[in-house]
Write a structure and sequence with these properties.
By secondary structure, the chain is mainly α. The chain contains 25 helices and no strands. The radius of gyration is 24 Å and the shape is globular.
Length: 512
C-alpha cells in the first residue's frame, strides 16, 4: 500500500487501494480553485461571499474527488475524507451560531449600544484606530481568544467607527491585528499551545521566542494606525449628527454599566477556560434575560405584539437568538449597527467553511499537498529560504485547506526533521508556523477564520485585509530574521525537549 492507503486505513479501519497523484493531478484542483474563485470575485465583487464563492469551493472539491477516483480510490474513501474535514470544524460551527445569537441579544440588551455610547463620548477620532488595536490586544492577551475578542469588543468598535465617522475597514483591520497580537502572546490561547506542543517546546519558551516577532510587529502596527488616524482628514462627523446618534441610543436604551454584565460574564467564563461555544451561548442567553428587565422598550421593538407577560418575553428573546435584532430609529448608522445578529446570519459563513474544508481534506489526505511541497523543500538550501518555504507552505495551506489547524499541523510534520538536521532549534519552527499559519488565517476570505471575522464584524475580508498590519508584518519579520540570522536559535541553545504530545489533531481542539 502507498502512504495514502496506510493513512486511509488508519482513519477508517479498512484497506484502500489507489495510486498517489502525479504532479498534474496535484496541480489541477488548485488551478480550478484559482480560476473559479477569481471568476466569482470578478463577476460578483464583494457579493461573491453570498453564494458564488461557496459554489466555487464545492466545484473545486468535485474536481479533486474525480481525480482521486481516477487514481483508483473508491468513493467511500472520498466520503470519509470529506466527512473528517467537516467534522474538524464542528466546534467552530457551534461557535459561529452562538456568536450570531450573542450579537442579537447583546444589541437588544444594550450591551453593544452602551459600549458604543461610552466610546463616542470618550475616544477622539484621531486616536480611534490605535486605541482599537491596543484594547483588542489587551483583551485577547487576557482571555487567549482572537475569536471571542473580535466577536465582542470588535463588534462594538466597528459599530462605533460608523457612528464616529471613521473608517470601518481600517477599524476592522485594527481589531483583527490587536486580537491576533494577544492571541499569539497569551498562554491561554489554544493555537499557541498547539504550536508549542507539536514542536515539543515548553509553552513559555515558545512565547518568549514568539515575542521577538509579535512585539515589534505590534509596534509597527501601532505606528501605522497612528499615522492613519492623524493623516485621514475625513475623520470625524458633524457634532450635531453625533449628538443625534447619542440621543437615539439614549432614548432607545437605558445606558448604564449594568448593560456590560454579559461582557463581564463572557470574560470570566473565557478565563476559566469554559468551552468557547458554551461560554458565548451562556453570555447570549444571559443578555436576553437581562434585556427583559432592563430594556423592555427594546424588547418591544424586537417582537412588536400586543401580548404581554412571560410568554411574550420568551418569544422575543427566542426570535432574536434565531433571526437577530432589528432597529428602526430613522438614523441609518444607528439602525445599521443595531439591526444584526441571529444564528441565521451565520448560515452563509458556515456553508463556505464546510465547502472549503471538504476540498482541503481531499488535498491533504490523498497526497496532493505533500506531492507539491516535498520538491520545494529540497530547494531550500539556506536558513532564510527554509523559513521562507515553511511560511509560504503554511500560508498556502490556509488558502487551499481553509483551516488554520491543518496549516499548523502539516508544515510542522513536513519541516520538523529538516529543522533538526540543520541544527535549528524547534522553537524557530513553532514561531514560523504560528506567524505563517495562525496569524494569516483571517486574511483568507474562505478560511474559517477569515469567514468568521467578516461575518461578525460585517466588513468583508478583502476590505479589511490591507489594514490588518500585524497579520502580514509578522510573517515578513520572521522571514527577515531567517535571512539575517537575527534571533534564530540553534539546537545547542535549546533546552531538553518536552515529552511527545499526546497526538492532538486539529479536530480535537476548539476554535481560537
Amino acid at each position: 500500500m502507498t502512504a495514502i492507503d496506510n493513512k486511509a486505513s488508519e482513519n477508517t479501519g479498512t484497506i484502500k487501494t489507489g495510486r498517489e497523484p502525479s504532479y498534474a493531478d496535484a496541480l489541477m484542483p488548485l488551478i480550478v480553485l484559482a480560476v473559479l474563485v477569481s471568476g466569482a470575485v470578478g463577476l460578483f465583487g464583494l457579493d461573491a461571499m453570498n453564494g458564488p464563492l461557496q459554489v466555487a469551493m464545492m466545484m473545486s472539491a468535485m474536481v479533486a474527488a474525480i481525480i482521486v477516483l481516477k487514481n483508483g480510490h473508491n468513493w467511500d474513501s472520498v466520503s470519509d475524507a470529506g466527512r473528517r474535514g467537516v467534522s474538524s470544524v464542528v466546534s467552530a460551527i457551534f461557535i459561529l451560531l452562538a456568536v450570531g445569537a450573542l450579537i442579537g441579544t447583546w444589541n437588544m440588551a444594550g450591551t453593544i449600544p452602551t459600549l458604543v455610547y461610552y466610546g463616542l463620548s470618550l475616544i477622539h477620532p484621531n486616536w480611534f484606530y490605535v486605541a482599537s488595536l491596543l484594547v483588542c490586544a489587551i483583551i485577547s492577551l487576557g482571555i487567549g481568544s482572537s475569536w471571542t475578542t473580535v466577536g465582542t469588543i470588535g463588534i462594538g468598535l466597528v459599530g462605533l467607527s460608523t457612528l464616529a465617522g471613521v473608517s470601518p475597514a481600517i477599524t476592522a483591520g485594527a481589531v483583527v491585528s490587536g486580537a491576533y497580537t494577544g492571541d499569539k502572546l497569551s498562554p491561554l490561547s489554544e493555537t499557541t499551545i498547539l504550536a508549542a506542543q507539536l514542536t515539543n517546546n515548553d509553552l513559555y519558551v515558545h512565547l518568549r521566542h514568539q515575542a521577538w516577532v509579535s512585539v515589534p510587529a505590534l509596534v509597527i502596527a501601532a505606528l501605522g494606525f497612528t499615522v492613519l488616524g492623524l493623516s485621514d482628514r475625513s475623520l470625524g462627523v458633524d457634532q450635531s449628527l453625533m449628538n443625534s446618534e447619542l440621543l437615539a441610543l439614549d432614548q432607545l436604551f437605558w445606558i448604564t454599566p449594568i448593560n456590560l454584565l454579559p461582557l463581564l460574564l463572557l470574560v470570566i467564563l473565557s478565563i476559566r477556560k469554559v468551552p468557547a461555544s458554551l461560554a458565548v451561548m451562556s453570555a447570549a442567553l444571559f443578555a436576553g434575560v437581562l434585556a427583559c428587565f432592563t430594556q423592555p422598550q427594546a424588547v418591544l421593538i424586537a417582537f412588536p405584539e400586543a401580548a404581554v407577560g412571560l410568554e411574550y418575553y420568551i418569544k422575543a428573546v427566542w426570535q432574536v437568538i434565531a433571526t437577530g435584532y432589528y432597529s428602526n430609529t430613522g438614523i441609518p448608522p444607528v439602525d445599521e449597527l443595531l439591526s444584526r445578529g441571529g444564528m441565521s446570519s451565520m448560515l452563509l459563513t458556515i456553508w463556505l467553511i464546510i465547502a472549503a474544508l471538504a476540498f482541503g481534506s481531499l488535498l491533504d489526505e490523498f497526497g496532493f499537498l505533500s506531492k507539491l511541497v516535498t520538491p520545494i523543500l529540497t530547494r531550500a538550501k539556506s536558513t532564510g529560504s527554509l523559513i521562507a518555504t515553511t511560511t509560504a507552505t503554511a500560508i498556502g495551506l490556509n488558502v487551499v485547506t481553509a483551516d488554520q489547524y491543518v496549516a499548523v499541523v502539516l508544515p510542522t510534520r513536513l519541516f520538523k526533521v529538516e529543522f533538526q538536521k540543520r541544527g535549528l532549534a524547534t522553537k524557530n519552527l513553532s514561531r514560523v508556523v504560528s506567524n505563517g499559519a495562525i496569524v494569516t488565517s483571517p486574511l483568507i476570505p474562505w478560511n474559517s477564520c477569515g469567514a468568521y471575522m467578516a461575518a461578525v464584524m460585517g466588513v468583508p475580508t478583502l476590505v479589511y485585509l490591507p489594514y490588518a498590519i500585524f497579520n502580514y508584518v509578522s510573517p515578513m519579520l520572521d522571514m527577515f530574521y531567517g535571512y539575517t540570522g537575527f534571533k534564530i536559535a540553534r539546537i545547542t541553545d535549546e533546552p531538553s525537549a518536552a515529552a511527545e504530545p499526546g497526538g492532538e489533531t486539529p479536530h480535537q481542539l476548539r476554535a481560537p
